[in-house]
Amino acid sequence: VLAYGHCFIVDEENHVVDCTEDWATYADGDARPMLLRTIAPMSPTVVHRRAALERHGWNERARLEDYELYLRLAPEGGFAFDPRTLAGWRGHGANTSRGQRMMLDEQLAAQRRVLPTYGLGAEEIEKLHARLRFARAEEFLRLGEKREALGLALSNLRGGADPRRERRCHVGSGGGHHAGREGGGVHAVLGRGDPVRVDRLVV
Q1: What confidence tens digit (pLDDT) does each residue in 106-133 have?
Q2: CB contact at 8 A, 159 and 134
Q3: Which residues of 42-63 are buried (b: 16+ CB within 10 A; e: fewer)?
Q4: Considering the entire predicted model, what is its pTM?
Q5: Using CA atoms, how far apart are residues 130 and 32, in angstroms rounded to an integer?
Q6: I need a surface site. Which of 12, 48, 74, 135 has the fewest CB within 10 A?
C-alpha cells in the first residue's frame, strides 16, 4: 500500500545532523508491529498507492495525521521498504521536549481510534500504552526533562516489563542514558510480562 525508505535530518543551517539509518529498524512487509511501537516512516520518504489513500485519506483533526493513516493502511497490505536514503526532513527550533510530549499523546490517541479495528479491546490497548509511556520516559530523561520522565515512569510502572529498563529510567541515576529511539524494541513493548495479543494482528 506504500513504499518508504531512510531519511536525512537537516537542521536550519542545511547541515545533515542525523539519519534514520543510524537508529530506526524499519519493517519490509507487515508494518503493524512496528507501528504499534510508534516507529513510523518519515513522511518525506513515503509514496502511497492512490487507491488505498483514496479509501482512507487523512484525519485532518489529528496532529500526527500521517501516523494515523499508516495505522489504517497497514492491515490492507505491506509497506515496501527501500533501505536507501533518498529524502530529507528539515528540523526547526521548536521545543524538543514539548514536541515529544505532543507526539506521545497524539500517537496514543491515534492508536485508540484505530486499534479497535485490529481486534484489540480497550484493556489490551491500555496495557500497550502503559508500556509505551514507560519506554518513552527514557527519551525524556535523555533530553534532560527529569520531571516529565519521572511522571511517566511512576504512573506507568506496570509497563516496565524489563528490569534493566526500570533501572535506566530511574531519574536519580544521574544519567541521560539512551538505548535507542525505538523505546527498547518489540519485546519491551509487546513481548514480555502480560503482552498485548499480537497474534491477533496477523490476518
Answers
A1: 999 999 999 999 999 999 999 999 999 9
A2: yes
A3: bbebbebeeeeeeeeeebeeee
A4: 0.75
A5: 18
A6: 12
